[in-house]
């Protein structure tokens, strides 16, 4: 069984090993709290995508059975960004 602690470690390893225009991982501190802005925007975007799918199911544009897999994907994205923020601020999700 995989623990929340292990998932958080996996997310940290993933974020630390990727590069792009901006670092995928930067720990937040008093000197650079702004590193959380990008991650918070990403999290908000994923929550918005999840809400949009649920909205489509609610108004009948998308069947629940068809939406289930999409909902699962967005929940995974939301969880990944939650783990990322926890790592950035040095919090244990498990605790």
Which helices and strands, and how do they pair?
Blueprint: H1 4-16, H2 35-59, H3 64-89
Helix pairs in contact: 1-3, 2-3
Overview of the molecule:
- This protein is mainly α and 95 residues long.
- The protein is built from three helices and no strands.
- The chain has helices at residues 4-16, 35-59, 64-89.
In total, the number of strands is 0
Alpha-carbon distance between the two ends = 17 Å
Give the C-alpha Rg: 15 Å
Largest sheet: none
Please report the number of helical segments.
3
Structural class: mainly alpha
How would you describe this structure in keywords?
globular, 95 residues, 0% strand, mainly alpha
Offer a quick outline of the entry.
The protein has helices at 4-16, 35-59, 64-89.
